[in-house]
User: Fold this.
Amino acid sequence: MSQENPISKQPLIRHVNRQQMSWRAVDVEHLISEDHPARAISTLVGRLNLSAFYQAIESSTEEGGRPAIDPQLLISLWVYAYSQGIGSAREVARRCEYDPAFQWLTGCEEVNYHTLADFRVEKAQEFDELFTQVLAALSQEGLITLEQVMQDGTKIKAQASSRTYCQEETIREHLERARRRVAEMGDPRNEESSPKAKQAQVRARRQQQERLESALEELQKWQARKSGEKAKKGTRVSTSDPQARAMHQPDGGLALSYNEQISTDAAQGLIVRVAVTQEPNDSGQLLAAVDRLEQRLEKKPQQLVADSGYTTRENIEKMAGREIDFLGTMRYENVPRGANLPNRFSAERISLSAREEPLCLPAGQSPASGGTTQEESWGDLPPLRSPAGGLPSLS
Assistant:
């Protein structure tokens, strides 16, 4: 083809038609591979004792009724969702529409998010026992040893605005106003055009009144823990989430939050216990974490590792009393040299014996002569010893 006489051609393209409807055959069993985690989770759940989940089902083959969704399926859905970092019932329901793993678990059947949410809330106690069975199975397989447990806490922000954080006087004012509005809703002179809309408004007002009453009750409990009229008067709680507490955040600010305590077995990185507390500080949660582990797994950890938030003199002594090795970091504080900090071991509690085992420097060097040596008594702790050819260390 010459440049003087070009020949133009219109390309023939098959365009995408997204407006069409289509039917498709789906082989549910082959939606996921044979080694997919969803299969393992379904098999594991099927081997657990789920009798407690079936006792509340009212329909039966003898009396009839609408068949209930198999609790084994709902449990498998939640366990697999948790393994993927999904904790929302709505999100789980959405995944059941397109995610192959969720479709395989449900057999491509629809599961309403209300069913998923209600099941998780109403069966909280049964779920706790179920996870105990799971941990026991993992421990039997050697995946949980408790030889070393990592303990840490994280602040979870509550779904509550700072504007709802009120004192007692403000809460009582809101509560009185809510009670008047609920009473006015029952006045026959205030008829609404739609009975359904009126019922919805009455329900919303009553729920608001119940939240305010719960907030006032929680505030009074919180006041009882404080001393002094000034401190009691300054106590505040959230009217939308009374259980939340004001806690310091990693960015240095304050926010209504909960303190979640997580215990993880270091062998396989498996979380073995989770607890949510209202206490803003981690220092008082170490012994409670050990108690929870002993209660669930019927044995105590051999070694516990935590950060400076847990490292206090009281925790060190109590962990030693329970014969548990505790590894914790000390918080760096800018204080004058030689000053003693509260709840810390003073220098007099540690001994350095220069006569029994002289300090050894690297490469076999000896300390410089000319100085005086003395033995200082540091209580019942052993003297500071140095390993062969190394730097001094506590034995």
In short: Residues 358-395 have pLDDT under 50 and may be disordered. The CA atoms of residues 23 and 108 lie 15 Å apart. The beta strands are 149-157, 165-167, 236-238, 245-248, 254-265, 270-277, 303-306, 325-328. DSSP finds twelve helices and eight strands in the chain.
